[in-house]
Amino acid sequence: MKNVFLFARLFTGALFIFSGIVKLNDPSGFAIKLNEYFDVFAEDVSTKQDSVNATIRCNDVLLIEKKYELYPSDDVKDIQIKIEGDSLLRSAKLKWGGSSIANEETKRLSFPARVEFDITGMDGKSIGHQFVIDSLQNGTLSHNEDLMMDISSWVKGESWLSIFFKGCKDYSLYFSGFFCALEVVLGFAMLIGWQFNITILITALLIGFFTFLTWYSAYFNKVTDCGCFGDFIKLKPWASFKKDIILSILVVILVVGRKYNKSFFVESKSHLVMSVFSLLTIGFGWYCYTYLPVWDFLPYKKGNDIKHIMTYIPEGERETDSIRIRFMMKKDNDSLLVSTAQYSEFSQRGYQFIRQDREIIIPGYESPIHDFAIYNAESGEDFKDKMLDYQGFQLVFVIPFLSEVNTNALPQAEVLYNWARKNQIPFWGLTSASLQASNAFKDERDINFMLYSADQKMLMTMARYNPTLYLFNGSTIVEKWSGASMPSLQTLNSFILSK
Predict the structure, then answer these.
(1) Whole-number Å distance between alpha carbons of 15 and 34
(2) pLDDT in tens, 302-333
(3) Contact 23, 180 (CB under 8 A)
(4) Model confidence over 356-390: pLDDT tens digits?
(5) Are 251 and 12 in contact (CB under 8 A)?
(6) Is 256 strand, coil or helix?
(7) Cα radius of gyration rounded to whole Å, the chain
(8) Listed residue (471, 304, 302, 469) closest to 392, CA to CA
C-alpha cells in the first residue's frame, strides 16, 4: 500500500503541475474557455420564456403565421414591410430582441394595401393593429411609430443565477490565473508532501468540481474542448471526464493511505519552499499574460504560414463533409423520409416535398485557421486575399476590444504606422468593434491608421494581450509582440534587414 500511495502522490502531483503550467502559460486562453462555460451555464439556468403567436396579413392575404419564443431582452416589436415593384410585397419581417420571423414569398397586392398585425401570448391576450399603405413612396416602411408594439408584459425577468454567470465573465482572467496557479501549487505541495491533509482536501474538491464540469460538457455536448491542457493537448469532453475519473480514484488512494505521507522537508523549510514556489508560479502567469506565452501552441505562432495552414488538407482527411440527404415527403396523412435515389419514385406516386434533412456522416477537416478575414466595415470590401497574397513585409496591429486596450501601446503604434507608410509597408489595424465605435476611438485617441474589421474569435486567438503586434513576411509570421513590449524602429529594421 505504501508504494501504491507514493505512486499516486507523485503521479497526481506531477500531472497537476503539468496541467497547471500549460494553462498558466496562456492564462488569456483559459479565460476564453471559462467564458464558454459561463455562457453555457447562463443559458441553461435562464428563465424559460413563453412563446407568442405572430400573424401578419395584407389585404386578407396571410403572409406570416408563426410561433416564436421570447427572450429576456425582448421589449418592443419592430415590423418592417418592404415593397418592390408596383404590386409586389417582397418581404414582411417582424423582429424583437433575439427573435425574428420573416417571409420572403412574393404576394401580388393592390394598393392601397391594408396590413393587419396581431400578436397573441400564451395567456390568450392579443394586441391587434392595422395600418394602410396608400402608395409606394420610397418602397419601404420601416421603424415607423405606427409599426411598434410593446410586448414587455409577456417578458419574464432573468434569473439571478443567469445574471451571476454572465457577471462572472468580467472576472474570467482573474479566475484563470487563480485556478491555474492553484493547480501548480497543489501539485508541488503534493510532490514534497507539504501540509498533506489540507492539500488533499483542496485537491479532492477541485477534482470533484472539474469531474462534474467535464461530465456536464460531455453529456449535454456543451463545450467540445475542455481546455484541461490548454492548446497543447486538446481533449474531447468524454476523454477529459475519464481522465478526471482516474484522478478521482487516485485521490481516494491518497486519502486512504495518507498515514504513509512523509514530507521531503522539515516543516520550517517546507513553508519557505512553498512560499517561494508560489511566488514564482504567480510571477510566471503574470509574465505569460503580459508578454505573451513562453511556449506558443496557437495557430498564429512565429514561423507559421497563415495561407498554407488555411488551405492545407492533411493526408487521409476529407476536404468536405460527407453528408447524407433525406427528404421528408407527404401524401394525404402519410409522411416519410426518403433518400435521394427514392425521391423521383415517390414524387411520381403523388408524394409532395416537405423539407430536406442533411446529416453529417463524416466531418471534413477543419483548418486551425478557418475564420481569417479582414474587411472594410464602411464599404464591405474584403481585404483577406490582398493581405495574404502580398509579397513583402507587413505589420498587423490587433485590438480585439477597444474598451479593454492598453492605451500605453497606442503612441508607439502610431510611430510604427508612420514608419511603415514611409517605407511602403502595409499596416493593418484590426478590431472587432463596429464602424461607429472604431471612428470614435480613433478621434478620441488621435489615431491615423485605419481600423479594419475582423471576426472577434479570430482576433482573440491572435491577440492574447490587447493589443498585439505582428510582423508578417508575405503570409508568414516573422515575429509578434505584446502591447506591453512594443518593438522599437531599430528592432523592426533589424528583422527586415536580416531577411
Answers:
(1) 21
(2) 999 999 999 888 887 888 888 888 998 888 88
(3) yes
(4) 888 888 878 888 898 899 999 888 889 999 999 99
(5) yes
(6) helix
(7) 29
(8) 471
| Gap between the Cα atoms of 200 and 180, Å rounded | 17
Tell me the residue ranges of DSSP E strands in 113-179: 113-120, 126-133, 140-142, 148-150
Strand, coil or helix: what is 302? coil
- Residue whose entry in the numeric block shows the C-alpha cell 483548418: 367
DSSP H or E segment with residue 324: strand 322-331
d(CA 234, CA 225): 6
On the CB side of 154, how many CA atoms lie within 13 Å of its CA?
Answer: 27
- In the beta sheet, which residues pair with residue 131? 115
Asked if residue 172 lies in contact with residue 34, where contact means CB atoms within 8 angstroms, the answer is: yes
Cβ 464 vs Cβ 380: under 8 Å: no
CA distance 437 to 431: 10
* CA 13 – CA 306 distance, rounded (Å): 38
Is beta strand 76-84 parallel, antiparallel or unpaired with respect to 61-69?
Answer: unpaired
Cα–Cα distance measured from residue 240 to residue 246, given in angstroms and rounded to the nearest whole number = 10
pTM recorded for the entire structure = 0.77
328 Cβ contact partners less than 8 Å away, ≥ 6 residues apart = 335, 336, 337, 353, 354, 355, 356, 357
C-alpha cell at 419: 514608419
DSSP string computed for 19-83: HHHHHHTSHHHHHHHHHHHHHHHHHHTSPPPPEEEEEEEETTEEEEEEEEE--TT--EEEEEEEE
DSSP 3-state percent helix, strand, coil across the chain (nearest 5): 45, 25, 30
The label of the residue with cell 463545450 reads 223
| Residue-level pLDDT at 214 | 86
Residue 138 pLDDT:
47
Longest dimension (CA), the chain: 94
- Angle made by CA atoms 427, 428, 430, in degrees to the nearest 5: 150
Average pLDDT, the chain: 83
Find where cell 474531447 sits: 236
Q: Quick one: 210 exposed, middle or buried, by C-beta within 10 A (0-12, 13-18, 19+)?
A: buried
C-alpha distances in Å from residue 91, one per residue of 45, 80, 83, 281: 35, 8, 7, 60
- Rounded Cα gap, residues 467 and 216, in angstroms: 34
Q: Helix or strand or coil: residue 428?
A: strand
Tell me phi and psi for residue 7, to 5 degrees. -60, -45
Residue type, 287: Y
